[in-house]
């Protein structure tokens, strides 16, 4: 399976693992350099965790409680959006110099202005009352903390046992349109992070079955998965001129699915192609080959749900 450039690197223990003994909160940080001027926005390259983006994130019992509360909100009823943040707000909270494993399409266009963009994002959060300064009883620099909803999401997106990224590309008259869903899977639920083309991150707590259902809709937006077919195999070099290649030319939605297991760092990928009347999955049978053999299979609704279940539950891809 191929490596994903957005592969997550968990920055600390899961909320349930020794959170109470951690000495530094994932949602708090002392003001960075240049923030001693009254009213100045702090410079936090490591986000609300520390001033050093290379240091590991450590969580407190308060952080663990916030994360658990976020997941509890998804235990009953319909899925509901919890909070939306922009790329620049994510950069401010999580650190503009800390490596991100989710897409940040707007921020990537800012180049050398990432630090300024993060400062603007932090100002907006402070103005909205979502981030506040905590006075240091000893008279030192104030510490900054996000509200529990945001703090919980920050913990969950960094401590999942499994990360699933689904990137769907749809061809439109205006050009390719990309939708990205990131699923942070925990024992007690799933946090969905949808990233729009404008760099808006929408966080929704889900039950496992809800995540599976939403993934099925993403892969097959028109509900055309109709039935099983015999597998078709073709070498990558021959795909363009093959019969299956001609069928794929009519693809309306291409979805690339990437699974990362944080226990061992393993990465797996699968792809699906939704045409006007079918959904096909693709697996490279010998991914290490220079000219891998590709297997395509038309799937029905039951197969598609089974695939989504395996991906979200961590059983594998393909």
UniProtKB/TrEMBL annotation:
<feature type="compositionally biased region" description="Low complexity">
    <location>
        <begin position="14"/>
        <end position="40"/>
    </location>
</feature>
<protein>
    <recommendedName>
        <fullName>ESX secretion-associated protein EspG</fullName>
    </recommendedName>
</protein>
<feature type="region of interest" description="Disordered">
    <location>
        <begin position="1"/>
        <end position="56"/>
    </location>
</feature>
């Amino acid at each position: 399976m191929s490596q994903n450039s957005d592969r997550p690197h968990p920055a600390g223990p899961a909320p349930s693992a020794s959170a109470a003994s951690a000495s530094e909160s994932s949602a708090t940080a002392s003001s960075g350099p240049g923030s001693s001027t009254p009213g100045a926005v702090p410079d936090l390259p490591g986000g609300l965790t520390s001033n050093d983006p290379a240091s590991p994130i450590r969580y407190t019992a308060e952080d663990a409680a916030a994360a658990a509360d976020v997941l509890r909100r998804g235990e009953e009823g319909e899925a509901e959006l919890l909070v939306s943040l922009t790329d620049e707000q994510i950069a401010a909270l999580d650190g503009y110099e800390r490596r991100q494993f989710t897409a940040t399409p707007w921020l990537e266009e800012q180049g050398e202005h990432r630090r300024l963009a993060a400062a603007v994002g932090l100002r907006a959060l402070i103005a909205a009352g979502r981030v506040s300064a905590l006075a240091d009883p000893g008279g030192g620099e104030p510490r900054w903390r996000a509200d529990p909803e945001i703090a919980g999401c920050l913990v969950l997106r960094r401590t999942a046992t499994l990360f699933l990224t689904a990137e769907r590309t749809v061809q439109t008259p205006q050009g390719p349109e990309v939708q990205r869903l990131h699923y942070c899977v925990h024992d007690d639920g799933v946090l969905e992070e949808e990233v729009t083309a404008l760099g808006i991150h929408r966080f929704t707590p889900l039950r496992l079955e809800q995540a599976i259902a939403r993934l099925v809709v993403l892969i097959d937006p028109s509900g055309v998965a109709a039935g099983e077919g015999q597998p078709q195999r073709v070498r990558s070099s021959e795909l363009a001129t093959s019969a299956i290649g001609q069928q794929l030319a009519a693809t309306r939605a291409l979805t690339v699915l990437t699974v990362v297991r944080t226990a061992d760092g393993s990465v797996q990928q699968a792809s699906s192609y939704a045409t006007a009347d079918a959904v096909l999955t693709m697996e490279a049978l010998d991914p290490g080959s220079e000219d891998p053999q590709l297997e395509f299979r038309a799937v029905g609704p039951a197969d598609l749900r089974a695939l989504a279940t395996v991906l979200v539950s961590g059983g594998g891809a393909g």
